[in-house]
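Action item from last week, closing it out:
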Amino acid sequence: MTAPISNNEREYLQALESELCRAKEELARLASQQGEAAESLRAAEEFKSRLVACSRDCIKVLDLEGRLLFMNEGGMQVLEICDIGPFLHNSWIDFWEGDDRDAARTAVQTAREGGTGRFVGYFEPRVSRQPRWWDVVVTPIHGAGGAPERLLAVSRDVTHQKKDEAALREALQVNQEIIEGAAEGIIRYDSELRYQLFNPFMERLTGTKSDQVLGRVATEVFPRLGPSGIEAGLKRALEGQVVHLEDVLVPRHSADGHDVWESCTFAPHRDAQGRIVGVIGLVHDVTERHHSEETFRTIVEGTASATGANFFPVLVRSLASALRAHYAYATACGDGVHAKALAFWDRDKFGSHWEFDVTGTPCMKVVRGEVCHYSHGVQELFPHAEFLKQIDAQGYLGVPMLDVNRRVVGHIAVLHDQPMALSQKSIDLVKIFAARAAAELIRQQAEFELHAALEQVRALQKKLEAENVYLQEEITKEHNFEEIVGNSKAIVEALDRVATVAPTDSTVLILGETGCGKELIARAIHSHGSRKHRPLVKVNCGAIPTGLVESELFGHMKGAFTGALERRIGRFELADGGTLFLDEVSELPLDTQVKLLRVLQEHEFEPLGSSRTLRVNVRIIAASNRNLEKAVREGQFRADLYYRLNVLPITAPPLRERRSDIPLLTAFFVERFARQFGKQINGVAQDTMELLSNYDWPGNIRELQNVIERAVVLLQGPVLRLGSDLLPVRNAAPAEEVLCVSSAHSIESAHSTLEQVEKRYILNILEQTSWVIEGDRGAAKILDLHPNTLRSRMKKLGIDRSNTKADVSHATSNPREAAI
């Protein structure tokens, strides 16, 4: 039988039971935590495995000898390895080549000893063979005892970084080459304006090495930077401005102690955060340009107002001054051997002019078109040039003077008794003024030739004037009518009549055949009358269209008829106070004759379209080649007008009634056309004069004038001979049968004027040249005319390519006879 449990024991047991429950709960909690920890560890291990497998880094496990035990999948992909099996347990060190293999061996040894080995090596993927650089880190994997048991090698692709580093190194190299080889100064200052960079250009410019200036304040090294304004520009750049300084003068700043002209640009230099930490400066040496501009200005100012005889003296003085030389001269040399000095500057005065042979002198090459510059030793190069010895020349510059065809016409030389090193710009400036000098020399030569030619022209003009006076005296011996030649009975009677009627103010009617000089008789009446200082207005009544006759004679108002766009002044109004010559008056329409009669009687008329009457004071001279009495009988001319015109009639005799005048006429025309066409004619052949005297001249004076003009045009020698084709067959007399021609061309030429002959000739030449006017094979060249002169003649003669088949026989003849 079990003894009863005491209360104390019962309480103790209850306490133990409670403790047991709590222990179970704790064990359950711990078991739960242990499961969670195991799961976390598993997940972590899985994550780490996945991380290693997927990493783009190449992760490898090596044994202590460097043999490959493991490689992650990401590494296999990067190295383009599909199967790692063949590589396992092989030396990882042997994967590398050259220096990289030694570096890998060293890294493995370092890791085996407990350290960390590292190197950058080159290894190409197995398939693409693309260049790859790898940053490799080898570390030990420690065992439980703390000693290295295996090695971990991690390789990261650093190809981009490697290329960037190479590009950076290349950029730095290029920058350094630019800085060192720049043809301008490159300077870097710190915030205290101490030199941080001073490139070789600045060393050459100032004669100061960079190690003498680096770390020193700019104005301490070069105190004159302050007064020149450069220091102020640097300070403005430190404040953030970009400063440009043009043509700054820094006294005695060059290596040889001369003044330097600089063009500078200063910009703030900033760090990565954008803070201004200094100044970058670019310096251009513009001293040579400044000197060239000064040289150019000196020469230009010296020669700007100089022309003619003063040009070359001023030029050589200005050249010597601008180039700081003691001597300068300019010569004319057209034959390449002999030079004639145009001006010579001798230190401080002009020297005498001289001529010399260029053989054996430095000028020898210059006059052949070469630019010669000897900075020193010119005497030694040309020992036979006495002139060089006389002035003790050391430096020499010779520049040819060329015309537009590159032909040497002279040369310019600048010499100095000290070495004379000139820049290319200075030489180019002298070449510019050599071209100007060549133009001036050519101008002076042309002016001289022009003056000579003008003197010759004046002499010829005086001779021609004397000959003209003599001829006029011969012509006017009988009646003093300058344009009328002849002393036959018929012409003398006509001129007596002219002398009688000229002083009067009466109306005159001149009758005569076509071409017998009616217009010249009218001109003689006008020029010897009281109205000779007023105009002689001519109207060819037969050449005016019927519908325009009244408008031409009396004028019209604007809108008087269709096409009357403005007021037109008629010939009567134009001739007011003078003389109106009505040629071919018989051709006037009858209704116009009525108005003409009114003017003759009342001296008044109304313009067409106007109700206002105009009064005029006009002397009328009429002419006709028709029998007006017959025209009156036939009703073609008003009788009252005929009687009003026939107050003082004059008959112009035909040439067949003046055969004794033919030689003197002929001589007059020969002299006139010889002068017009520039030919020397000594006389007229006797047989030609006989032909002219025996011909009937149905065309009268006008026909004679045309025949002589054609003969002069075609003349080849000094004696005028008339060709058989220049006179037509008009007479039946046996004595004149010698004039007959059989060709159709000769018959046609009998009716041709000179202008018609000229038109046919020009058309023939144009057709031969296919209407080409200019050029070596053009019509102007063949005709020995200027192209513009030929075009003017074509326009006057009505020659147009679009109408080449026009009837040239209708070419207009000269409307004015030269003599009767």
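Closing note: Residues 470-480, 729-751, 805-820 have pLDDT under 50 and may be disordered.
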